Amino acid sequence: GNLDVNVPVQSKDEYGKVIRTFNDMTLRLREAEDARRHLVADVAHELRTPLSIIQLKLENAQQSSQTASPEMLLRLHDEVIRLSLLVDDLHVLSLAEAGRLSLDFKPLDLTAKLEQIVDDVKMEAEENGLEIQLSSGTGPVTVIADARRIAQVFINLLTNAIRYTPPGGRISVVVEDKVAERDQTYACVSIIDTGVGIPEEELPRLFDRFYRVEKARSRHTGGTGLGLTIAHQLMKAHGGFIRVASRLDQGSAFTVYLPVQSLDDK
Ligand code: ADP
């Protein structure tokens, strides 16, 4: 449809108000339409590379009379896995961006959840020569959240910490109760690594979809470039947010803020 409608406003009365509202809505529709067009273009671009690799490998196999080698099948399988991870991520992201993600809000003990998640990733961290450690106060830190979605946020951040920290490094997970910020009380979880870090000028775009600090470096690390975008959207859906502090060649700290309801809110 044509969204380039803008009705000139002459009158200052009710009629003028209606026209201004109409113009406002048109603008917002156009912005949504632009965003949608960009997403489709980005997705097409991201799907292109793995699909080209698969296509090329299959064509080569067809042309040579030999049967497919195990290595080639492994490469093909990797690319297919990559494609399906990308599609899964896009699904969550599109639901979140449309505000259609259904969240199952329940009381959740962050400390217990993180103990479990850190346990799950410990082996992968150790295989990469990294030490991982959780520190929290005594007692539970309770928030109202969707346990599965929150776990996804932490897993995305921890996977990045593991990916972008060279062997010999260290990852610390710190849980804090009752951090006051912007007139609200939050429970905070920080994931701190001693990795490659992020240049300051890259920080503002870090949560954009498909954004990677160094395209070549990141591609072979196997991510989809959507992990942080999804983490950001999931936190927003929880009324929370994520902050990042980083220094090149020294490390990064991602802090997740989740609102805690004070007793008088209930
Ligand atoms: P990816 O799938 O590429 O990891 P993300 O959205 O999770 O995508 O992260 C976007 C980019 O931010 C990464 O490609 C990487 O360049 C940078 N990044 C994320 N986390 C870290 C970290 N802990 N240390 C250094 N760089 C990071």
UniProtKB/TrEMBL annotation:
- Topology with regard to the membrane? Multi-pass membrane protein
Which positions fall inside the HAMP domain? 1-34
GO molecular function term, any single one = ATP binding
**Keyword Cell membrane found:** yes
Subcellular location field: Cell membrane
Superkingdom per UniProt: Bacteria
Name of this chain's protein: histidine kinase
Organism of derivation:
Cohnella zeiphila
Q: Which residues of the parent protein does this chain contain?
A: 109 to 374 of 374
